[in-house]
Every structure is written in structure tokens, then in C-alpha cells.
Amino acid sequence: MKIISTEKSQVLASNLARMLEVGIATKEFRRFPDGEIYIKAGSLDDETIIVGSVVDSDSLVELLILIDACEGSEITLVIPYMGYARQDRKFNKGEPISARAVAKALSRGVARVFTINIHEESVLEHFDVPAENLSLAPEIGEYIRSLNLEKPLILSPDAGASAFAADVAATGGWDADYLQKTRLSGTEVRIAPKNLDASGRGVVIVDDIIATGGTQATASSMLLEQGATAVYAACVHGIFASGAYARLSGAGLAGIASSDTIESAASRISAAAIIAEAIRR
After folding, report:
1. What pLDDT sits at residue 185?
2. What are the chain's domains?
3. What is the pLDDT of residues 175-204, one digit of tens each?
4. Pick the catalytic residue: 40, 104, 151, 181?
5. Which tens digits make up the pLDDT trace of 118-129?
6. Between 20 and 30 A from 77 (CA), which of 17, 32, 151, 226?
7. Ordered strands of the 202-210 beta sheet
8. Do residues 166 and 195 lie in contact, with contact meaning Cβ atoms separated by under 8 Å?
9. 181 is annotated as an active-site residue
């Protein structure tokens, strides 16, 4: 068995290889003058694990042709972050179900698929091979444990993500709640935990994705005003679009952490352990 990765998932693939004690296949990557991607896979074994996050259109094309380059080996495909997964239904006439199109394209030539905290688990039904979604909630919980917070309170940005917050909180037996917006006037909104008090507590806002970070930034300032001793943000997939990381840093957050499903300077949590466990199974 060997592991090979796309350009955007090299760190996670290397950590996974160490955990599984397997080799990493070499790969040549370059671009033609017209921008097309060229890939040449090195020597492969009978089994290959491909690790590749779909963070943009180029990484999707790279993953598709890397799968083709590994033809002849039994492929386990690990998609740490699957872009296009949020378009999982037709919202307007004439729209594609992008998640379905991508899932079916990535099914060709692989034996099985693993995803990490995919936005909607129903997307797994679109793969033409067995697909399993893995959760990083326990790993985020261990990160929170390392912070040594006083009376930790785990919050999700809204009710929709409350189940994920509860899963994270279960790691340490901590309290969990979700943030609720209350409009006080035409221009003023209050954001606070729905049922619990943040006063005197270390708060961690958790979610599967941080995209623009707007809710986390606004909530951080308000939670500090409500008496929270410190506010952190932690997520699985750190997109940090449109200056989100800087916005969060400037909002008084004591720490910002994401995982290596999207590799960045904020990647303080690794998905390698849960992927290794799933592959051993």
C-alpha cells in the first residue's frame, strides 16, 4: 500500500503515511503553457490511498486525473474537504446538483471513498461506490482540552450546527449550546447563547466550516461583553475567505484553529488519526 496526494493535501497525506507506516508514492506535477495540469504518478502498489481536498476547480481536475493516473491499483479515495458539496439540491430551475455531479465523477476508478464532516451526509448517496463520512468532533474536543479553559462552554453559530457542538462537548463532558440572534432594533442585534450564560466561562465557537467568519467575529465581541473570560473559534474546514482570519483575529478571539483538511497556518488539528483508523477497519 502507498499513499499519494494532490498538491493541496501534502501535509495530511504525509501524516497519514506515518500513522499507517506506509510509503508515499512520488508524483510529478506541472502545468502546460495553456494552464492545463500534467501529472505523472510514480511506482504504485496493488493498493493506493489518494488524499485530495477539493478546495477549488483546479484541485478537482487534479484529483480526477490523479485517479486516472493510478489506474490498475485498488484505490481508496480520501476527500478531506469536498468542494461543491453545499449545492446538494436544485434551489432554482436550471441549476445543477453540483454535489451529485462531482461525486459521480470522483467515483470512477475508485473502490471506496472517505469524506470528513461533509456539509450534508446525503451527498454520500451520489457516489457509485461505498462512501463513509468521518467526524473530527473528538479531535476538536482534544484541542479544546489542551486549552485548559475555565468551565468550557461549547457553542455552535446556530441551531443547525448544535449537534456538532454537542459531539465536540461530549469529549470532555462540557456544556453545549448554540448562539441565538435577537433583534433589539432596526440596526441593533444581540447574539448570545440560547440557554446558558457565558459569564465567567471560556467559550469555544465550533462549526464544520468557517468561510467568512462574520458570525464568529460578531459573536466574539458580544460574548466578551457578556463576561466570557476568553473566546476561541475552532472548525473542521478553515476556508477563511475574504480576509476572514484577520477579521477574527481583530475581533478579540484568543485563538483560531482549523484542521488540515484545508491546509493553512491555522491547521492545529489533524484528520490523519481518524482516517488511519477508518482505513485499518
Report:
1. 65
2. 2-135+271-280 (3.40.50.2020), 137-260 (3.40.50.2020)
3. 999 999 887 666 667 788 999 999 999 999
4. 181
5. 988 999 999 999
6. 32
7. 189-193, 175-183, 153-156, 202-210, 230-238, 255-259, 267-269
8. no
9. yes
